[in-house]
Amino acid sequence: MLKLRIALATLSAFSILIFLFFILFSIHFMSPLLPPTYTTITLQNTSSPQQKFSLLIGILTRPDNYDRRHFLRLIYGIQSSPIAQIDVKFVFCNLTKSEQRVFIALEIMRFSDIIILNCSENMNSGKTYTYFSTLPRILSRQYDYVMKADDDIFIRLEPLALSLQPLPRFDLYYGFVIPCPSMNPFVHYMSGMGFVLSWDLVEWIGTSEIPENQTFGPEDKMVGQWLNAGNKAKNRVSNKPAMYDYPGTNGRCSHQLIPDTIAVHRLKRWEQWLHVLNFFNVTKDVEYSKLYNL
Questions:
Q1: Cα–Cα distance for residue pair 70/188, rounded to 1 Å
Q2: What are the beta bridge partners of residue 58?
Q3: What is the arrangement of strands in the sheet containing 84-92, beginning at the earlier edge strand?
Q4: What is the pLDDT of residues 203-217, one digit of tens each?
Q5: How confident is the model over 64-102, as pLDDT tens digits?
Q6: Torsion angle, CA of 248/253/258/259, rounded to 10 degrees?
Q7: Under a CB-based contact definition with an 8 Å cutoff, are residues 164 and 53 in contact?
Q8: pLDDT for residue 49
Q9: pTM over 0.85
Q10: CA–CA separation, 70 vs 278, rounded Å?
């Protein structure tokens, strides 16, 4: 009788071991063809990556400035930002020459980065108004921000994106406040070198009678007057000293190049561009190749 009890106890212990082994084996090697019969808890990262914001940079230029456009395509084609989708377009008024229609058609076919407005080329007679007021009607999408920029400015896209990222996406007016010594973005206006408006302000310009009836005069100054008259742009940012004119070109609006630069304006000569590009070492990522020796 004692031997029987010992045998049963041994068998029971062996059965328990076999059962435990089966459970462990099932957990680690369960067939993918069979649904699991046990409950699992999966720890997931519930934090999603921050969504990219979007920015359209419209460089106001003239149709005949072929060399400048091709050069700027190089400048902006090698830049990007992981936090923003940035599109760069070249903006001018109606074509007036037969050769423009051929050469610019080739640019459109190759680069698809040109906007031709229904206006006559001008500096202070409504081109900026036409630019902003036209965009909501011709673009197939909205942007968080729209920038108006000159074609003699070097914009560093990554610092620009980083400076815009924490800012409001609504009712925003961003740039370099004039007069030059001022640090108050709520007085006067942003320089025409390059300023940013949130999309709602772009739409407002396209529908309001305020800008429509005030299109003649210094265009950067006019934009500030529109926004003040319409009680718009409650969010204003002047990004000094990161935006400035090239050293020695414009009095107190100029200063020496600095590492934290977002934009340098008044680059009229090639030697100025060379100085700026060397300062920021924009060709540092060029790859080694037997095809060239730099």
A1: 34
A2: 89, 148
A3: 114-116, 84-92, 53-60, 145-150, 194-198, 172-175, 235-238
A4: 999 999 999 999 999
A5: 999 999 999 999 999 999 999 999 999 999 999 999 999
A6: -140
A7: yes
A8: 54
A9: no
A10: 19
